[in-house]
Design goal:
Length: about 300
């Protein structure tokens, strides 16, 4: 080798060193990218799992029992407007339908109502006096099923659900005042396409109606304790079939059933029409003193 070759050798050595350095840098960069990618994937999986867990936690609420005294998804009001006391529908359980004594002369009235439903309000306002009279005489019972189907027309306030939830709270804590509460809720009923009553206004109506245990009911209403039950009970009513009747399901409230027969009318605001239907459905056994909008004159005895 001559002195003239040394620069060439130096250049080759420098090139090899540079090539090796580039290869080492490339390998390090690949390892780093691989770690970043793997870490990113792992982190992404963790994020996805966290999101799934949050969604599951927020969308699947624990099952809760329904209100006391509504084992059938409704509350039965009997003689002197006193409620029949029953257990609650258990968590994840099914309601137990009320068994009607077909040999009894006591008429059983069952109604499915939404507190925002105008026709429901017409029926209750028109018939509250004569139904109260039948209850006081022990001539009839009324089983009231509060449901929620009209939230869509309460301007986002979910009034139907809140009102039905409040009714469930009354059934749970002050069942003997349920009929009075129902009348109060329909006495000055809010209109559709309006937000309806606030919780405070509902509680004020309960107070004015003489509902007891208001402290517990207030907490129950404000916490929406029985909201999940209202949703489930409404779905059951809309799915059907309705017990002790040939009614497949609640298509639209009110649904009114008297001794197993559905009452349908062109004028739900007529107490006389409903009285006539009750007499027809119950037969000759039903002959209580009734209150009608126009009292029937009593014939004058002849001498």
């Amino acid at each position: 080798m001559t002195y003239g070759d040394e620069p060439e050798v130096g250049r080759r050595d420098a090139a090899r060193e540079k090539s090796k350095a580039l290869r080492d840098a490339h390998r390090k960069r690949e390892r780093r990218n691989r770690w970043i990618l793997q870490g990113g994937i792992a982190g992404g999986v963790v994020v996805i799992l966290v999101v799934i867990a949050i969604v599951l936690f927020t969308s699947i609420s624990p099952a809760v029992a329904g209100p006391l005294n509504m084992q059938s998804d409704g509350i039965t009001i009997g003689k002197a407007a006193k409620a029949e006391l029953t257990p609650a529908v258990p968590a994840d359980g099914r309601p137990t339908a009320t068994t009607r004594d077909k040999k009894s002369s006591v008429v059983t009235i069952r109604i499915y109502v939404d507190f925002l439903c105008p026709t429901c309000g017409q029926f209750v306002r028109a018939n509250r006096d004569q139904i109260s009279s039948w209850l006081n005489d022990g001539a009839a019972t009324i089983e009231i099923h509060p449901i929620s189907v009209l939230d869509r027309v309460s301007l986002g306030s979910s009034y139907s659900t809140r009102a039905a939830t409040a009714a469930a709270c009354v059934a749970n804590y002050s069942p003997n005042d349920f009929w009075a509460f129902t009348q109060a809720m329909f006495a000055q009923q809010p209109k559709e396409q309006a937000p309806g009553f606030t919780n405070a206004q509902i509680l004020s109506k309960a107070r004015d109606a003489g509902v007891g245990n208001l402290s517990q009911i207030t907490t129950c209403v404000n916490n929406q304790r029985f909201k999940a039950w209202v949703v489930d009970a409404t779905q059951r009513a809309q799915t059907g079939p309705l017990p002790d009747s040939n009614v497949k399901a609640v298509a639209a409230p009110p649904v009114i059933i008297v001794d197993g027969l559905q009452y349908q009318s062109a004028n739900y605001g007529s107490a006389a029409d409903f009285q006539a239907f009750v007499v027809q459905a119950a037969g000759a056994a039903f002959s209580p003193e009734v209150t009608t909008p126009t009292p029937t004159p009593t014939p004058t005895p002849t001498k």
